[in-house]
Every structure is written in structure tokens, then in C-alpha cells.
């Protein structure tokens, strides 16, 4: 659902498609959902509306592509955090994952805020569930270093806890900060300490 009309293969076509998606992102940041039309996106991207429709059937397909791009970026950042801390202390690995999630939300906070609402309107539930499971597997790999008995549901809970805290902070206009990081870390450690008493700071 909400797929691009065609997959860009040539370098120029890929650049045009990327420009259209980035134009939608910038409009969401500057004008919100109310200012997002295919005409406005085409104008911001510097292409004709006809050219836009060669790549995307409607603005929903553009937004879905944008969301998928952001999801891939988040997953790559989490994977990188896990890989780079594989030999580090477990607490360092957990911190790296938390910071990856915060960076994803706050590097472009206005865009992340708008996409939270857009995602709910698009039929991406199956994709969202698949992403959540991939994230949970990465989290599980990390929290099992703190508590070997932790299971997949514990990892899902950690994802939900951190996502809830980060999203709530973003909606309140709070920037990504050490204070928010500390709150998220305490929440996760607190949860893990209740499910596995030997987990400590």
C-alpha cells in the first residue's frame, strides 16, 4: 500500500525521487500537514506536477516513502550502536541504543512530530509491526547482556517505554537533552530491575 509508481534506477531519476521526498519533509517541517499538497511538493522540489506523478501516484505514497526511509535510518543507527558496543560494558551498549533513538527523534524534531500523526493515517500497520520486532531483537541482544533471562517481551516493553518517553518529550517541545536521556535510562533500568532484580546501574 502507498508504494511509489515506479522504482527509480538511473542516477538522475533517483535524485529526482529523493528531491520529491525531501521536499515533502521540508514542507511538513515548515507548514505542517495542512500545507502538504502535491502542487506544493512539486514546487518545493523544483519539478513539474507531471514529473512528480511519474514517480508517485499521490502524496500518501510520498509520505509512506518518507516514513520508510526514516525507519530504515533508525534501524541502521540501532544496528550500528549494537555493533560498535559489542565489546563494551553492557551499560555502555544500552546507553548507545538509547542515544540512537533520541538522535532519530530530535535531529529533525518537527518532522518526527508530524510523521507520528501521518503514520497513523496510512495503512502501514504490518510494516510498523515488522519494524518493531526488528528493533525488539536488537534491544533483546543488548538487555540480555544485563540480564540473561530477559525475553522478547521484555525487549518489546523497553522499546515501548523509551518510545513513549521520547515522543512525549517531543510533543511537549522538549529538545533531546541529557536530562531526557537520564529519565529514559532510569525508566529502562527500573523496569529491568523489577523483572530481573540483579540488574543494577
Automatic annotation (TrEMBL):
The keyword Cell cycle does not apply. Residues 37-56 bind DNA. Residues 14-74 form the HTH tetR-type domain. One of its GO terms (molecular function) is DNA-binding transcription factor activity. The keyword DNA-binding applies. Keywords: DNA-binding. This is TetR family transcriptional regulator. It comes from Parasedimentitalea huanghaiensis.
Amino acid at each position: 500500500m502507498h508504494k511509489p509508481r515506479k522504482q527509480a534506477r538511473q542516477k538522475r531519476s533517483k535524485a529526482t525521487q529523493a528531491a520529491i521526498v525531501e521536499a515533502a519533509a521540508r514542507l511538513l517541517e515548515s507548514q505542517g500537514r495542512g500545507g502538504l499538497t502535491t502542487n506544493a511538493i512539486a514546487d518545493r522540489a523544483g519539478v513539474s506536477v507531471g514529473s512528480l506523478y511519474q514517480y508517485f501516484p499521490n502524496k500518501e505514497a510520498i509520505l509512506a516513502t518518507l516514513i520508510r526511509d526514516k525507519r530504515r535510518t533508525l534501524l541502521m543507527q540501532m544496528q550500528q550502536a549494537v555493533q560498535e558496543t559489542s565489546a563494551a560494558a553492557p551499560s555502555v551498549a544500552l546507553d548507545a541504543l538509547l542515544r540512537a533513538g533520541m538522535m532519530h527523534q530530535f535531529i529533525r524534531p518537527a518532522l518526527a512530530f508530524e510523521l507520528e500523526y501521518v503514520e497513523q493515517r496510512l495503512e502501514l500497520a504490518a510494516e510498523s509491526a515488522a519494524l518493531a520486532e526488528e528493533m525488539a531483537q536488537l534491544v533483546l541482544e543488548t538487555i540480555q547482556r544485563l540480564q540473561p533471562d530477559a525475553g522478547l517481551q521484555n525487549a518489546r516493553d523497553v522499546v515501548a517505554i523509551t518510545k513513549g518517553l521520547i515522543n512525549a518529550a517531543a510533543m511537549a517541545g522538549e529538545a533531546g537533552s541529557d536530562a531526557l536521556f537520564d529519565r529514559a535510562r532510569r525508566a529502562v533500568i527500573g523496569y529491568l530491575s523489577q523483572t530481573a532484580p540483579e540488574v543494577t546501574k
